[in-house]
């Protein structure tokens, strides 16, 4: 890529974590305690999600945070795991690119 060329949308998106395969966007509605959250997902389901141990110690998740949810294979409409949380800067970028729209 030349110095004065604008990077393509695909190149800019490649730097940011997006949902893969069965994963969906979600918004944390409330904390239930013990590392569990109630999340309203983009596919219309409201899931009880847990924060896996590797995220629990590194990331602080609060209400109204935008997250990526990986639904469980069993009870996929009711339960899932939170695999990523977006910062406010990342969320602003997603809105600007038209990937995330507030509902």
TrEMBL record:
CDD domains: S1_IF1A. Transmembrane segments: none annotated. Residues 14-87 form the S1-like domain. InterPro entries: NA-bd_OB-fold, RNA-binding_domain_S1_IF1, TIF_eIF-1A, TIF_eIF-1A_CS. Keywords: Initiation factor, Protein biosynthesis. It holds the Pfam family eIF-1a. One of its GO terms (molecular function) is translation initiation factor activity. Belongs to the eIF-1A family. NCBIfam families: eIF-1A, PRK04012.1-3, PRK04012.1-5. Seems to be required for maximal rate of protein biosynthesis. Enhances ribosome dissociation into subunits and stabilizes the binding of the initiator Met-tRNA(I) to 40 S ribosomal subunits. HAMAP family: aIF_1A. This is Translation initiation factor 1A. It comes from candidate division MSBL1 archaeon SCGC-AAA259A05.
């Amino acid at each position: 890529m030349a110095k004065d060329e604008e990077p393509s949308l695909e190149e800019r998106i490649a730097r940011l974590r997006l949902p893969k395969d069965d994963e969906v966007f979600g918004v944390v509605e409330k904390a239930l305690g013990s590392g569990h959250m109630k999340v309203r997902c983009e596919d219309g389901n409201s899931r009880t999600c847990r924060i896996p141990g590797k995220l629990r110690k590194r990331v602080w998740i609060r209400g109204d945070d935008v997250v990526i949810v990986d639904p469980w294979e069993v009870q996929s409409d009711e339960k899932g795991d939170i695999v990523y949380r977006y910062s406010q800067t990342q969320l602003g970028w997603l809105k600007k690119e038209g990937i995330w729209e507030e509902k």
